[in-house]
Specification:
Layout (H helix, E strand, L loop, with lengths): L2 E7 L5 H12 L4 E3 L8 E8 L14 E9 L23 H8 L4 E5 L8 E2 L2 E2 H6 L9 E14 L2 E8 L5 H12 L3 E11 L2 E2 L6 H10 L18 E3 L2 H8 L4 E2 L8 E6 L3 E10 L2 E7 L11
Parallel strand pairs: 3-10, 12-14
Antiparallel strand pairs: 1-3, 2-3, 4-9, 4-10, 5-8, 6-7, 8-9, 10-11, 13-16, 14-15, 15-16
Helix pairs in contact: 1-5
């Protein structure tokens, strides 16, 4: 089974927990995910199966969209609702105008310090492992980009938001830093990821749905159509002779595609053979071969 499946991750599970569940349900070992979600967070978690796990390299810098709630009144050590309070709770009431004024400071390219409880590595060790051992941590600011940050509504001490961010941005840090600016502390109360690159929440399935469908027979129809993947790359369909050369990793001549640097090469409508890179003119070299001559192809 080779394909991409979008799971609506429930709260309380790590991304790796979801991968393990999918492996058991689909009875397939070769499954990974595109973009970690915190255990508290819910929403879009794309899973890649079979040979398509090799596509992960194209999503390391994928843009993400979130909706969530920031609670003002106290900070926590994890910067979210699962952490321990690090400041005395305060009775606060904030207005939409106050929060929108704060939000201005977090739009665009900014410097952000990752949370202590995060996967950021310090001398090769994830920060959260050191934080759990109460080690002294010095996390350096990193440059991130918040492309959109809209305050949807404010009620007493809570602000609902929608954000579109570049890879590496922590909305937990945004919540924490907004509380610091307001002087009352704050943390991320809830977070739901609604998109990763081209993968949308509307196309997501719960683990329960996946389990039910798999028990009925085949879950193939839950996987995305391969031609919807990596929409920034044009698609080209190879004839049998060209496909054979691609499977053996040899360069091929492909139709002119508006001088595209990289293309998706298909055999028929659904079998994604390779991602090919232009060498010169119409000559392309397979960068990643997804279906070799010894690869069993199962159409999704």
């Amino acid at each position: 089974m080779n394909g991409v499946l979008i799971i609506d991750k429930p709260a309380g599970l790590t991304s790796h927990d979801v991968v393990n569940r999918a492996r058991r349900i689909l009875e397939q070992r070769s499954i990974g995910h595109l973009g970690t979600l915190d255990p508290m967070a819910t929403g879009v978690l794309p899973l890649v199966a079979g040979t398509l796990t090799r596509l992960a390299q194209f999503y390391t810098s994928a843009e993400k969209t979130y909706e969530g709630t920031i609670r003002f009144g106290f900070a926590t050590d994890t910067y979210d609702a699962e952490g321990e309070p690090t400041s005395p709770p305060q009775q606060v009431s904030v207005s939409k105008e106050e929060v929108e004024t704060l939000a201005v400071h977090f739009r665009g390219v900014i410097e952000q310090i990752p949370p202590r409880f995060s996967a950021k590595k310090i001398l090769g060790v994830p920060a959260y492992k050191l934080a759990r051992k109460q080690k002294d941590l010095v996390l350096k600011p990193v440059q991130v980009e918040i492309k959109e940050f809209e305050i949807l509504a404010v009620e007493v001490a809570c602000a609902r938001f929608r954000a579109r961010v570049a890879s590496g941005t922590y909305m937990r840090s945004v919540a924490h830093d907004m509380g610091q600016l307001l002087g009352c502390g704050a943390h991320l109360e809830s977070l739901r990821r609604t998109a990763v690159a081209e993968f949308k929440i509307e196309d997501a399935h719960s683990l329960e749905q996946l389990q039910h469908v798999a028990q009925q027979g085949s879950a193939d129809h839950l996987f995305l159509h391969p031609r919807t993947l990596l929409p920034q790359f044009p698609s080209v369909t190879a004839d049998e002779a060209t496909a054979a050369r691609i499977r053996s990793g040899r360069p091929v001549n492909l139709p002119e595609l508006s001088r595209a640097h990289q293309v998706k090469v298909f055999s028929g409508q659904r079998d994604l053979l390779a991602i090919a890179t232009r060498v010169a003119g119409t000559l392309f070299h397979p960068k990643i071969v997804l279906f070799g001559t010894d690869t069993p192809v199962r159409r999704l």
